[in-house]
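Sequence and fold:
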Amino acid sequence: MTENSVPEDAHRDDPVSANEDVARLRLQLKDYSLEQLEAIGLVEWDREANIVRKGQYFGDKKFPE
C-alpha cells in the first residue's frame, strides 16, 4: 500500500493515519463522542467556534475504560 492509497474496506470519510500510533489511538477513541471525551478531560470543545483542543488529561498514558 502506498502513502496515498486507501484500502477498499476503509471508511471513505476517515483520513489516513499518519503512523501506527495515530491509528491505534483512533481505534481506541472511535466509540467515544466528543461529549464523552470532554467529560473525561481529554479534549476541550468550543461548540460555538466548532473547535476541539487538547484537554488537561490529553497526554496521560492511562485511558479511562
